[in-house]
Design goal:
Helix content of chain B: over 70%
Mean pLDDT of chain B: 93
Number of helices of chain B: 9
Order of helices and strands of chain A: EEEHEEHEHHHEHEHEEHH
Strand order of the largest sheet of chain A: 6-7-8-3-9-10
CATH superfamily of the domain at 2-79 and 156-230 in chain A: P-loop containing nucleotide triphosphate hydrolases
Distance between the termini of chain B: 34 Å
CATH class of the domain at 2-79 and 156-230 in chain A: Alpha Beta
Strand content of chain A: 15-25%
Helix content of chain A: 40-55%
Radius of gyration of chain A: 19 Å
CATH topology of the domain at 2-79 and 156-230 in chain A: Rossmann fold
Number of strands of chain B: 0
Largest sheet of chain A: 6 strands, mixed
Shape of chain A: globular
Oligomer: heterodimer
Distance between the termini of chain A: 36 Å
CATH architecture of the domain at 2-79 and 156-230 in chain A: 3-Layer(aba) Sandwich
Structural class of chain B: mainly alpha
Largest sheet of chain B: none
Radius of gyration of chain B: 21 Å
Low-confidence stretches of chain A: none
Order of helices and strands of chain B: HHHHHHHHH
Number of helices of chain A: 9
């Protein structure tokens, strides 16, 4: 579980995050949603330590991340996995070598065991056949799957995904979402996904927080989002006519169920 | 005006502090170290040989045509060619050329890794990116550069012989005598010492520019150019200081 308490982040005079309080539960896919420029990426970067918050607390299973020493942070980071928007695979390494990289760095297993573990992770994302290829030779969706395999290689407790669906077609996006959701349940991880993909929100949003101009505006689940009264959230989520229609149908269903009861 | 260079120097020192720490895994360090020796050193042999060969030949022709007179001993061409190759070209000028080739390669490689979040990925894994990426490059270039200096000196001398064999502008015996005349072994060591300093400048300065990129592909291009300019300026400046210290 990750808890965030009164988190602030500013760049010079500009406040980007203001008094964010949130709890991200273990074994669940926790989504952070918001418009572009709302501070989602800054928030996730603060959580993983790529940016230093101005003030606040980040607790990883009650361990205060911000007051940790360099070595303690280093050890905690071995419990983290991250999937970047651009996949961030190492160009000079093959797919298998990319997945093996964290194992090579931190595992004391033999080469055979490390290879076996990397192949197992690649098999988990259905990419065992592409193990000898280089990142430049595979599609964007496959790169994201390799990034997932690399992120889970060391059995992390915390998984962070920064817009994992960006640049992918809807079908591949769904596949990635399902994969992340399944892996979260399977490994009982605390997964935090930064997204503005509405399919992800409706599909795997077990716990959602909505950020608007650096402030947390709303918190709930994918089911609660249909009945949410927050105007900014509704304007953001149900921006298209199609989604407005879906929402109205969903509300009608809920009303009909209530009458039946 | 004054604050920016001080702040840049401070950032460079901080980066070097992170770079020169104990590698997380020695096995991975040696793997990277060998890869970098090939990519930065072995792959530069061709250009070093080519340029040194022609410069050696051209120096011989220029000295013969412009300096030699009946009042000068005949061996002066070989002697001057050797001194130029040994003292300046094979260490300083060759390193200026390598600053262009190797420096821009390092800056753009690390810069692209920064832009595509590969460095962030390393950081989140708990790897020290500066140590993992920069340290092997610096050590590898400092290791291979004395060998490149030797290759350069030999290629230059072969170039000088070519002007005698095929150009016929000078007697081979005179060139040979001049090349051996009043030879001081210390000059070779001076070349090695200077080149090792220059290798450190090329690798560390280029890595600094690449590592601190903010932006996209334009920033990568700018960092690559800046790294070459800054490395060249620092090589020239340190050449002045080192020459005074070693030869003065």
């Amino acid at each position: 579980m990750i808890q965030v308490k009164s988190l602030y982040k500013s760049f010079e005079d500009k406040d980007v995050l203001l008094d964010i309080n949130a709890t991200f539960n273990q074994g669940k896919t926790n989504l952070i949603i918001g418009q572009s420029g709302s501070g989602k990426t800054v928030f996730i970067k603060c959580l993983v330590g790529l940016l230093k918050p101005t003030k606040g607390q980040i607790l990883y299973d009650n361990r205060d991340f911000l007051s940790m020493s360099k070595n303690e942070k280093k050890l905690l980071r071995r419990e983290m996995g991250m999937i970047f928007q651009s996949a961030a695979l190492f160009d000079s390494l093959s797919v298998l070598e990319n997945v093996m990289f964290p194992l090579d760095m931190f595992s004391n297993d033999t080469l055979r065991d490390r290879t076996r573990r990397a192949q197992f992770c690649l098999d988990r994302v259905n990419l065992l056949d592409a193990q000898k290829k280089f990142p430049g030779e595979i599609s964007g969706g496959m790169q994201k799957r390799v990034a997932i395999a690399r992120a889970i290689a060391l059995n992390p407790k915390y998984l962070f995904c920064d817009e994992p669906n960006s640049g992918l077609d809807p079908k591949t996006s769904l596949l990635i979402d399902e994969l992340i959701h399944d892996i979260t349940t399977e490994y009982d991880m605390t997964t935090i996904i930064n997204t503005h993909d509405m399919n992800s929100v409706m599909g795997i949003g077990e716990s959602i927080i909505y950020i608007y101009q650096g402030r947390k505006e709303w918190e709930g689940t994918k089911d609660e989002i249909f009945t949410a009264t927050n105007k900014r959230l509704n304007d953001f989520i149900f921006a298209s006519d199609l989604l407005k229609k879906v929402r109205n149908e969903e509300i009608n269903d809920i009303s009909a169920n209530d009458v039946d009861l | 005006m004054i604050l920016k260079p001080i702040s840049t120097f401070g950032q460079y020192i901080i980066l070097m502090g992170r770079t020169f720490s104990r590698p997380d895994r020695m096995r991975m360090f040696f793997k990277q170290y060998l890869n970098e020796m090939v990519s930065l050193g072995i792959n530069s042999i061709g250009i070093v040989l080519l340029i040194s060969f022609f410069i050696g030949a051209v120096i011989t022709i220029q000295i013969k045509l412009n300096i030699q007179s009946p009042w000068m001993p005949r061996f002066v061409v070989g002697y001057t060619t050797r001194e130029i190759m040994l003292l300046e070209f094979s260490s300083s000028i060759m390193c200026l050329i390598l600053a262009g080739k190797v420096g821009s390669n390092i800056a753009s490689e690390i810069g692209t890794m920064r832009v595509t979040q590969q460095i962030d990925a390393l950081e989140i894994m708990g790897v020290n990116p500066a140590n993992y990426l920069i340290f092997p490059k610096i050590i590898a270039l400092m290791t291979v550069i004395p060998f490149l200096v030797i290759f350069s000196i030999f290629a230059g001398i072969i170039g000088a012989f070519f002007t005698c064999w095929f150009g016929g502008i000078l007697n081979v015996e005179d060139l040979e005598y001049g090349l051996q005349y009043s030879f001081q072994e210390w000059f070779i060591w001076c070349s090695f010492i200077k080149s090792i300093f220059f290798a450190f400048i090329i690798a560390s300065v280029s890595a600094y520019f690449g590592y601190n990129i903010e932006g996209g592909s334009i920033a990568v291009g700018k960092a690559s150019t800046d790294s070459v300019v800054m490395s060249s300026v620092l090589i020239l400046f340190s050449d002045l200081v080192l020459t005074q210290l070693l030869m003065g």
